[in-house]
Amino acid sequence: MKNSNSNRSQVEKLRAIVNSEYESICSIEGAFGRWLIGLWGEYEGLETFSEQKEAFFYLLERLLRDGKAKFVKPDADVYHRYDTVTRQQILPPRTINDPETHWNAPVEEILDYLRQHWPQAATHKDDLELNAYFYRMPAIIWKGEDGTWYGG
Asked: Which of 17, 30, 83, 127 has the smallest CB count inside 10 Å?
């Protein structure tokens, strides 16, 4: 029973910390428009890698539930490329403002996907596997005040 209460108080602690910084994180001066790696931060008061990880996933949950951010579908092609031979820009068939590129699955499904792909061997915030994880995951997009979607 004591372990259950300890876990509950740890969850409450990290949620309180994220909640206290949430509006700042969502602002233009904060994390708005950043890539997923830009949401991986160090919160004052959280000491362990595990706490940082859970704070990260809680922040994502809030952003998704509040409609402030979405993810691009894992298989959607919305990325600009550059052909190094012809020196021509290659435009994607769709953009992040095309609704069919948005991952509209339930929040739990999206978070499960992100958790399943989390590098189990990662043990600290600067782990190379963790860095690679952020670049392998679908892009996060941010809803502007005018309803336009912005990417990092």
From this structure: 83
Instruction: Give the pairing of strands 69-71 and 140-143.
Output: antiparallel
At 59, give phi and psi (nearest 5°).
-60, -45
CA angle 29, 137, 15 (to 5 degrees): 55
The angle formed by the CA atoms of residues 112, 117 and 8, to the nearest 5 degrees, is 50
Structure tokens at 129: 């596997």
Phi first, then psi: what are they for 89, rounded to 5°?
-80, 135
Q: How many CB atoms lie within 10 A of CB 81?
A: 11
Q: What percent of the chain has pLDDT over 90?
A: 49
118: pLDDT strictly greater than 90: yes
Q: Which residues of 116-151 are buried (b: 16+ CB within 10 A; e: fewer)?
A: eeeeeebeeeeeeebeebeeebbbbbbbeeeeebeb
User: Which residue, 9, 31, 35, is CA-closest to 22?
Assistant: 31
- Tell whether the model's pLDDT for residue 35 goes beyond 90: no
